[in-house]
């Protein structure tokens, strides 16, 4: 019998019963796998980026590197080499030992006219040599990439960089140049991360133009409705039209949030497995109960994020711009969170929150480091990301909209003046 958690909810694997191939992404991804191009999959959190990769590329055929804020250019590629169980000889020495023994006895008799002697002599000489090789995983640049590419080809593996957004911007820029080198070596990498802007890697390295294909993961209403329809069929239930509308609107076009709310709703209604007789669900207090449960699950995260933005970096203690940015996020119209907040609008609102002058350069400096602030404080996934090309502050975590709308939090108390 099919269990509820197999149908709705958030998990690591590919949804067995509610997977939706939206806009032909499966066919596109599979086509790109056969091209001589890097593939970049990006978008907001919990939108199915890694799921798309798992659905269409067997993990047994991949070397998956999970990026982290602490990573350097050295250990990024070393991580891949360790998974390939690959190492190179970094030093070699040879030690020779020579040994032996001589033994025996000699007996002689001497008289005036006759000398008689008898003896026995034994000798043993041995020679031993030992080669000492010290092997280590590669570190460095071009030589490492040559070796890495050879190992990937030998093992027939595809390299995947997950959570690319956690790397610092300066490091992401270095990786963009390494990707160009890997391209020339015939290695085509899959890069997955949370950011909104198109052509991020080509922005870092223009030589990647034409060598990268991007997939921006988004969901629309009909696609989310299809997720619910598949779940209905599997569990033998029916969401009323009004209830479906409420579920989709509450998800803010985020499939992960839709899955969580639908699971809580079914659980609250006692639907834990496929129903023998069709059950029809209508919007009532059960929906509000499901929403309240989701809020309880995610509430601590946003309290923590608030604390991070209130403290900011030590250099920000006077103007407290990060703190003021978070205040703006709690007040601004949701359409600007969904579509991105323009720099000029953000500057004006931050200045309105300040008693001291905030110059454009002050805000720009903070926005340039806003991802680093979150990553170094273990904010996973990122709440916001700044698009330098479009000069937009983009919300990467749609659950914040859900929490802002349905949570009974007093933002003025949580984020004091």
What is the correct CATH architecture of the largest domain?
3-Layer(aba) Sandwich
The CATH homologous superfamily name of the largest domain equals P-loop containing nucleotide triphosphate hydrolases
Number of helices: 18
CATH topology of the largest domain: Rossmann fold
| Share of β-strand residues | 15-25%
Shape verdict? flat
Tell me about this structure:
It is built from 18 helices and 12 strands. The protein has 417 residues and is of the alpha/beta class. The protein has 3 domains: 132 residues, P-loop containing nucleotide triphosphate hydrolases (Rossmann fold); 75 residues; 116 residues, no CATH class. The longest helix has 27 residues. The chain is flat. 33% of the residues are buried.
Helix/strand layout:
Elements: H1 4-7, H2 25-33, E1 38-43, H3 49-56, E2 62-66, H4 73-83, E3 88-110, E4 115-136, H5 142-155, E5 158-162, H6 169-184, E6 190-193, H7 200-204, E7 212-217, H8 221-235, E8 237-239, H9 241-251, H10 255-268, E9 279-281, H11 285-311, H12 321-331, H13 334-339, E10 341-342, H14 343-352, H15 360-368, H16 370-376, E11 384-387, E12 392-395, H17 399-406, H18 411-414
Helix pairs in contact: 2-3, 9-10, 10-11, 11-12, 11-17
Task: Give a concise summary.
It is built from 18 helices and twelve strands. The protein has 417 residues and is α/β, with parallel strands linked by helices. Helix 2 packs across helix 3 and helix 10 (255-268) crosses helix 11 (285-311).
């Amino acid at each position: 019998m099919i269990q509820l958690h197999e149908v709705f909810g958030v998990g690591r694997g590919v949804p067995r019963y509610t997977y939706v191939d939206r806009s032909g992404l499966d066919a596109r991804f599979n086509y790109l796998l056969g091209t001589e191009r890097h593939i970049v999959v990006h978008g907001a959190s919990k939108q199915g980026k890694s799921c798309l990769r798992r659905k269409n590329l067997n993990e047994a055929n991949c070397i998956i590197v999970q990026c982290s804020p602490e990573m350097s250019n050295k250990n990024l590629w070393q991580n891949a080499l360790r998974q390939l169980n690959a190492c190179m000889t970094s030093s070699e020495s040879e030690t020779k030992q020579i040994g032996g023994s001589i033994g025996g006895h000699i007996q002689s008799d001497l008289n005036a006219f006759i000398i008689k002697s008898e003896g026995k002599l034994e000798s043993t000489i041995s020679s031993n040599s030992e080669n000492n090789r010290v092997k280590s995983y590669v570190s460095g640049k071009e030589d490492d990439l040559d070796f890495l590419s050879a190992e990937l080809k030998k093992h027939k593996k595809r390299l995947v960089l997950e959570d690319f957004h956690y790397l610092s911007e300066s490091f992401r820029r270095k990786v963009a140049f390494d990707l160009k080198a890997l391209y020339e070596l015939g290695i085509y990498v899959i890069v997955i991360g949370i950011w909104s802007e198109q052509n991020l890697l080509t922005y870092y390295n223009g030589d990647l133009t034409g060598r990268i294909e991007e997939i921006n993961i988004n969901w629309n209403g009909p696609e989310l409705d299809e997720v619910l329809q598949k779940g209905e069929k599997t569990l033998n239930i029916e969401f009323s039209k009004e209830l479906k509308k409420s579920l989709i609107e509450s998800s803010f076009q985020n499939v992960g949030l839709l899955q969580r709310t639908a699971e809580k709703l079914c659980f609250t209604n006692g639907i834990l497995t496929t129903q023998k007789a069709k059950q029809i669900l209508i919007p009532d207090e059960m929906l509000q109960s499901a929403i309240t449960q989701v809020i309880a699950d995610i509430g601590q995260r946003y309290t923590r994020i608030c604390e991070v933005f209130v403290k900011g970096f030590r250099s920000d203690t006077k103007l407290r711009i990060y703190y003021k940015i978070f205040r703006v996020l709690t007040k601004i119209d949701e359409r600007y969170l969904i579509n991105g907040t323009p720099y000029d609008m953000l500057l004006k609102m931050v200045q309105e929150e300040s008693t001291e002058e905030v110059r454009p350069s002050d805000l720009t400096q903070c926005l340039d480091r806003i991802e680093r602030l979150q990553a170094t404080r273990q904010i996973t996934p990122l709440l916001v990301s700044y698009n330098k090309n479009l000069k937009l502050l983009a919300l990467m975590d749609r659950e914040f909209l859900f929490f802002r709308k349905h949570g009974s939090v007093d933002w003025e108390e949580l984020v004091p003046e």
